[in-house]
Amino acid sequence: MTIGGMLLAAGGGSRMGMPKALVVGVDGEPWLGRGVRILAEAGCRPVLVVLGARADEAESLLPDGVPVVVGVAKDWQQGMSASLRRGLEVAETFDNVDAIVITLVDLPDLDADAVRRIASVPPGSARAALRQARYTDAPGHPVLIGRDHWEALRHSLTGDTGARQYLAAHGAEMVDCSDLGTGRDVDSRD
């Protein structure tokens, strides 16, 4: 069983004032590099990063020593659906990947333990799996999408929404991760 990782980082970050893929944390680590590192530390192989706004600049912030596949969502202005759609298109080229853990670049307290918890599925069940982290009473990231769902999910995506409706409609297993973080994303410098 092989679980890949996908980091969505294509948006323009209008509320942030810059693409979130270009943000460097207070600790000096680029958010992009942190997201890649967390997926890799959790055992996700391969790690796929979806870029869009200012992709060339963002690509320079990818960490050395971690193999990364980059997909560029040229239509990133259309919202999260464009990023996720591009990521799923690239993921479909990974013949040996049974499922993919998807997360966002702007989750400051996400750690590898949450990714491992979401990716922990019984052998032989990954291709059909749908799992989503839950923090207190709210769904969040990461999510795990089994390969059997990739094509249908890709075709269902529209506008500035991700997989949330698909996950709800298809009975995704909610996995409590409240003990591992808040699940909050950062939308502005404030």
TrEMBL record:
Organism field:
Rhodococcus oxybenzonivorans
What CDD domains is this protein classified in? GT_2_like_f (cd04182)
Question: What's the protein here called?
Answer: Molybdopterin-guanine dinucleotide biosynthesis protein MobA
Question: What span is annotated as the signal peptide, if there is one?
Answer: none
Q: Which GO terms describe its molecular function?
A: nucleotidyltransferase activity
Check the record and name the SUPFAM superfamilies matching this protein.
Nucleotide-diphospho-sugar transferases
Start and end residues of each MobA-like NTP transferase domain: 5-170
